[in-house]
TrEMBL record:
GO terms for molecular function: ATP binding; ATP hydrolysis activity. Belongs to the ABC transporter superfamily. Keywords: ATP-binding, Nucleotide-binding, Transport. This is Amino acid permease ATP-binding protein. It holds the Pfam family ABC_tran. The keyword Transport applies. It comes from the Bacteria.
């Protein structure tokens, strides 16, 4: 795992946009797991599957449980079945001490949770 942090204007957002080819690389090279992201032969979808990011201001779906929020992308984007997605999501939730937040009781919905908690859940969502 790599975390990119720095002051405002230091290029964090530009870096992630260039890694995902949402912005062109003006000079130099960016390599992810031994793959040059600017190479025309690079499978951009494979890179995007492995590179997750959480915006400073982000939203989870407030009507879904934590588990549902985390399993949504793996099922819709990666084509995982519910069992695969839930297994991975539970592993990720356990790593950050949120496994108990998977059920649908009110405090477990993102809107009812603290900002720090939502950031942790958002980070897990980006890695699922």
């Amino acid at each position: 795992m790599v975390v990119v942090c720095g002051p405002s204007g230091s290029g964090k957002s530009t870096l992630i946009r260039t890694v995902n080819q949402l912005e062109s690389i003006e000079s130099g090279e960016i390599w992810v797991d031994g793959v040059n992201v600017a190479d025309p032969k690079t499978d951009l979808n494979k890179i995007r599957e492995e590179v997750g990011f959480v915006f400073q201001s982000f939203n989870l779906y407030p009507h879904l449980t934590v588990l549902d929020n985390i399993t949504l992308a793996p099922m819709k984007v990666k084509g995982q079945n519910a069992e695969q997605a839930e297994k991975k999501a539970m592993e990720l939730l356990e790593r950050v001490g949120l496994a108990h937040k998977k059920t649908p009781s009110l405090p477990n919905f993102p809107a009812a949770s603290s900002n720090a908690w939502r950031l942790r859940a958002g980070w897990r969502w980006s890695r699922a």
